[in-house]
Amino acid sequence: MRNLYKLTFFFVVPLFVLSACSTGFKLGSYEDPYENVNRKSHELNKVIDKKVLRPASKAYANALGQKPRSVISNFSENWGLPNDLINYTLQGDLGNASKTTGQFVINSTVGIAGIFDPSEKLGLKARGTDFGETLHRWGVAEGDYVEIIFLGPSTERDAIGKVADLLLDPVGFVFDPWQSRLRSTANIGNILGNRVALGSTIDSVLYESADSYAQTKLAYLQGRRFRLNPEISEVYSDPYEEFNE
């Protein structure tokens, strides 16, 4: 019970504070009160990418062909579906909740624990979601832009959402240690696979733009706002859709 109280204090209370104090975004508004700190985090993230993530992703691609990488990504993404289901349910989106349930059941059985993705051929392919989107649906404003070491660009609302997704992940409560290690390994493989798939775009933003920090912030905020507010497609299309697949 004491742990529950701690969770309530450190997680729920900040949600109310963020909801009460933050302002909603405006198109074309990119205020950045944490820019000095964010830029330092961004430079560290660039070092991590250059020294670790980019070379590791190239080694991963050289070691494994497209099909093995797809199997690993399928497995990783399949076991993230229960978290999507929780978020869709909390958002009141019963259509996507049902689609996610069907996708998970079919891929976990016919697809052999998710290493294959037969649900896609049946039209059961729900768009992924997260607790940041759930907070958005609840009316919590995005807050200010932040760049988190290791995790990259975010907003105050999405940063809280990332923590919530870790705490609320149902798979973590049912997997034994061996299964958890297997899933964690697959998740790392999926990250490396995504770095391979988006390599030219990421390299262009991080290493070829005049101001990689400003470009990263722009890409994240425009892509995220478009994803959460599809009605703004009437104003502009999403030029960074591949970041948000």
Which secondary-structure class do the elements indicate? mainly alpha
Widest sheet: strand ordering? 1-2
Low-confidence stretches: 1-13, 15-20, 236-240
Share of helix among residues? 55-70%
CA(first)-CA(last) distance: 39 Å
**Shape estimate:** globular
Mind telling me the C-alpha Rg?
19 Å
Counted by DSSP, the helix tally is 11
Mean pLDDT: 86
Number of extended strands: 2
Largest sheet: 2 strands, antiparallel
List the secondary-structure elements in sequence, H or E: HHHHHHEEHHHHH
Strand fraction: under 5%
Structure write-up:
- With 245 residues, the chain is mainly alpha-helical.
- Helix content is 66%, strand content 3%.
- It has helices at residues 2-21, 35-63, 66-78, 81-91, 94-109, 131-137, 156-168, 171-174, 177-197, 199-208, 212-228; strands at 145-148, 152-155.
- A two-stranded antiparallel sheet has the order 1-2.
- Strand 1 (145-148) and strand 2 form a beta hairpin.
- Helix 2 (35-63) crosses helix 9, helix 3 crosses helix 9 and helix 4 (81-91) runs parallel beside helix 6.
- Mean pLDDT is 86; it is low at 1-13, 15-20 and 236-240.
Keywords:
single chain, 245 residues, two-stranded antiparallel ribbon, globular
In short:
With 245 residues, the protein is mostly helical. It has helices at residues 2-21, 35-63, 66-78, 81-91, 94-109, 131-137, 156-168, 171-174, 177-197, 199-208, 212-228; strands at residues 145-148, 152-155. It has 11 helices and 2 strands.
